[in-house]
Amino acid sequence: MSTVVVPATGDVQASFAPVAKYYGAAIAVCPPRRGNRKGCVEAAVRFATGRWWRTMSAETPEAAQLSLDRFWATKGDARLRSPRGLEEPPADGSRPRWPTVGELAGAEPLLPLPAAPYPATVQAAVTVDHRASVAFRGNRYSVMPGMQGMTVALRHRLGTKALEIYSPSGTLVVTHQLAPAGAGEIVRAPEHKEALEKVVLGQFTKARPCDRKENRPPGAVALAERAKLLGAAGAEPAVDLEELARVVHAAFPGAQEVAE
Predict the structure, then answer these.
(1) What is the structure's pLDDT at 82?
(2) Quick one: which of 71, 89, 88, 87 has its CA closest to 79?
(3) What are the structural domain ranges in the chain?
């Protein structure tokens, strides 16, 4: 609510007044500690969102307004509404008839929608991923390779189909054509695609692959480090052949004759 009015006074924010004037809308703020009024507004929004907005397929504001009118004339008529102000109570004391959506619309006609949305700019700061792209409204848009990890600024002017990407220094990097929101598309400029292909292909090598069965004994440096870590336990065993022969002859007296 603080985007529209000052919570302490209820005055319209100076930044939001041009928006209300552009759409020709009157701002009515729900007073504090009025749970019934606030709940009524939220319930109506929740009902319209769940039953109409999620499946609405209109592509223009005019078509959306017609779709909403048809929705309220059918599904919405089942909801009870107060008859106060639309008709006098019956003279016989019977229960008054609840008005339909058509009667409500006739009693309070809507103003025509503006031809274009309010000329505001949506800006967001995002980080470039390892694929040299940034995310915006369910799609990804490319930048030049080498900008991975940088935080760039995205700017979209309402009513246009362009998305501008600015570098951290404020320089315009590229302008993309907006893809449908939530389409999951990757919009990549031709020059960005070519540069990314060069980077990826440049990481390949024509050198001969390593021989997995090649004999590679440890070198002098590796042996020196091994000796430092293991000390005496890592030294090469020293074998005394004369002592070995004496032990063998003692254990196998006939080994001398067999060897001869």
Answers:
(1) 53
(2) 71
(3) 31-107, 121-202
